[in-house]
Automatic annotation (TrEMBL):
Source organism, top-level taxon: Eukaryota
Top-rank EC class of the record's enzyme: isomerase
Binding-site residues, Mg(2+): S65, D275, D277, D279
Protein name: Phosphoacetylglucosamine mutase
Example GO biological process: carbohydrate metabolic process
Sequence positions that bind substrate: E369, S370, N371, R497, P498, S499, G500, T501, R506
Pathway(s) it belongs to: Nucleotide-sugar biosynthesis; UDP-N-acetyl-alpha-D-glucosamine biosynthesis; N-acetyl-alpha-D-glucosamine 1-phosphate from alpha-D-glucosamine 6-phosphate (route I): step 2/2
Gene assigned in the entry: pgm3
Record InterPro entries: A-D-PHexomutase_a/b/a-I (IPR005844), A-D-PHexomutase_a/b/a-I/II/III (IPR016055), A-D-PHexomutase_C (IPR005843), A-D-PHexomutase_C_sf (IPR036900), A-D-PHexomutase_CS (IPR016066), AMG1_II (IPR049023), AMG1_III (IPR049022), PAGM (IPR016657)
Length: 543
């Protein structure tokens, strides 16, 4: 076939480096940008096949999120704007590593019974890395080699591209597949949400945003005029001087538990940080003693779910709110949600796709990883009930107000994937409506002291887990040891699991004091080292 000849011809221009193996994992493909040209071309081919297979537009985002500037990577987006189906992740890995490209390609076509005369459409976007332009061109080459149509959105955040894909495939029902359409929808909803917020002070209109020197900064700037001064953003780390993700951004702030380097914080003011592709957000402030306070994904999920539950009650709508977390969620947040807020809490495996999937089972579900990646999902039935109520002329003022707020909430949220910009607008709207300061938000519950450690082992697959990764089923004796260590401390919890993105085992521990959390994390690390084939030096105590 002529298509295959074209693939063969073009692939010579995108040669695979010898000996390189890539893996399409939790966060797509990621490695040093020098080694990625062939993979990008091949993912262009795969996106085209996926488009033919689903008869819908598929997205390809060129980014390595919070990784250093020298790295790059790619994320594939399925028709409803969600992450690509796991079955195809396997094809992505196979194709990226194939020595005989055509054989693997034909194999996928046969297995999935793909009609090669079906039209294909692929949306492509990229972040601000210096390698992104060259690599997104390689994706476009892959699409055209298989006669697919492509639309290059150029510089966009990852969630913006997810949004475009969903808009395109729902024929405008979700919004218009343009940046202008995205800003208009979100900002109009934000303005509607906050317009009657009588408790809102002028101070509450000010927010400082750390753009991680990445794409999020550019896009916040682009959005500003749509906000009509209802939110006034001071942008830091906007990419004009600093390096992408270097000592700044959501990942740095969450992991280091401190503000971006060089950031002068005024006590009591609200700050937030995006990551390198703007699909994660965390908030923070310092108190009058200069103490740093982080409001991570758990605090965000609590704020959002409480707000939604209250509104649904006021609206008299019998829709259940659930929160989906991972095992890394702070025990205090889970306890508060279950016992005080009385919302359903589910624990999913680490990785956004697992949370998203679990959230789809509820009427209204807020899902967040502690690191700040998350969003809210409304079922179709829930959206319909809310819209019907908002348009009902025979309801009282309280119900009307709640229904309209819920309707605008649906519009401010990007339901396809965690979105720092959309999450920021929603959080700002909630604080405005409730007249709540960042300190009051933080005081809703106190995080339990916790510690995360990494242990190097010969083969991390030695650890196998169950119960959403909260219990180890192998190696023998591992879980019993963890249980008996946990029993030594108060309010303690600990679990171990192999990382999906690094060649290590992660250990998590929490307890009533930082000393206890640290000691427990250390003891569990030692147990992993001894029972699961630790390599290098034995883990040392933290103090
Ligand atoms: C404890 C932790 O933060 N794990 C991260 C990390 O996964 P690991 O499988 O733990 O390496 O990277 C994932 C992808 O970015 C992210 O979804 C997840 O939250
Ligand atoms: Mg990211």
């Amino acid at each position: 076939m002529a298509q295959f000849q074209e693939v063969e011809k073009q692939s010579i221009m995108h040669p695979k480096p010898p000996g390189l193996t890539l893996h399409y994992g939790t966060a797509g493909l990621r490695t040093n940008a020098k080694h990625l040209d062939h993979a990008m071309f091949r993912m262009g081919l795969l996106a085209t096949l996926r488009s033919k297979n689903t008869k819908a537009t598929i997205g390809v985002m060129v980014t390595a999120s919070h990784n250093p500037e020298e790295d790059n990577g790619l994320k594939l987006i399925d028709p409803m704007g969600e992450m690509m189906a796991p079955a195809w992740e396997h094809y992505a890995t196979q194709l990226a590593n194939a020595d005989d490209l055509l054989t693997v390609l034909k194999d996928i076509i046969e297995k999935e019974a793909i009609n090669m005369s079906q039209e294909a459409n692929v949306f492509v976007g990229k972040d601000t890395r210096s390698s992104s332009a060259r690599l997104s061109q390689a994706v476009l080459d892959g699409v055209s080699a298989l006669d697919g149509h492509s639309k290059d959105y150029g510089l966009v955040t990852t969630p913006q591209l997810h949004y475009m894909v969903r808009c395109q495939n729902t024929k405008g029902k979700y919004g218009e597949a343009t940046l202008d359409g995205y800003y208009s929808k979100l900002c109009q909803a934000f303005i509607q949400l906050t317009k009657n917020a009588s408790n809102r002070t002028d101070d509450q209109k000010l927010l400082s945003v750390d753009g991680a020197n990445g794409i999020g900064a550019l896009k916040v700037r682009e959005m500003e005029s749509h906000l009509k001064k209802e939110l006034q953003i001071s942008l830091f780390n906007d990419g004009s001087q600093g390096k992408l993700n270097y000592q700044c951004g959501a990942d740095f702030v969450k992991v280091q538990q401190k503000p971006p380097t060089g950031f002068k914080m005024n006590p009591g003011e609200r700050y937030c940080s995006f990551d390198g592709d703007a699909d994660r957000i965390v908030y923070y402030y310092t108190d009058s003693e200069g103490q740093f306070h982080l409001l991570d994904g758990d605090k965000i999920a609590t704020l959002m779910s409480t707000f939604l539950k209250e509104l649904l009650e006021q609206a008299g709508l019998n829709l259940k709110v659930a929160v989906v977390q991972t095992a890394y969620a702070n025990g205090s947040s889970t306890h508060y949600l279950e016992n005080t807020m009385k919302v359903i809490v589910r624990c999913a495996k680490t990785g956004v796709k697992h949370l998203h999937h679990a959230a789809q089972e509820f009427d209204v579900a807020v899902y967040f990883e502690s690191n700040g990646h998350g969003t809210v999902l409304f079922s179709e039935a829930a959206e319909e009930k809310i819209c019907q109520l908002a348009e009902d002329p025979n309801i009282n003022d309280e119900k009307k107000r709640a229904a309209l707020l819920l309707q605008n909430t649906i519009n401010v949220i990007n339901q396809t994937v965690g979105d720092a910009i959309s999450d920021m607008l929603f959080i700002e709207a909630i604080l405005a409506i409730k007249g709540m300061s960042v300190q009051q938000w933080d005081a809703v519950y106190a995080d339990l002291p916790n510690r995360q450690l990494k242990v190097k082992v010969a083969d991390r697959r030695a650890i196998d887990t169950t119960d959403a990764e909260r219990r180890a089923v192998s190696p023998p004796g591992m879980q019993d040891t963890v249980d008996s260590l946990v029993n030594k401390y108060k309010q303690a919890r600990s679990f171990v699991r192999p990382s999906g993105t690094e060649d290590i085992v992660r250990v998590y521990a929490e307890a009533d004091t930082q000393e206890s959390a640290d000691a427990l994390a250390h003891e569990v690390s030692l147990a992993v080292y001894r029972l699961a084939g630790g390599v290098g030096e034995e883990p040392k105590p933290l103090h």
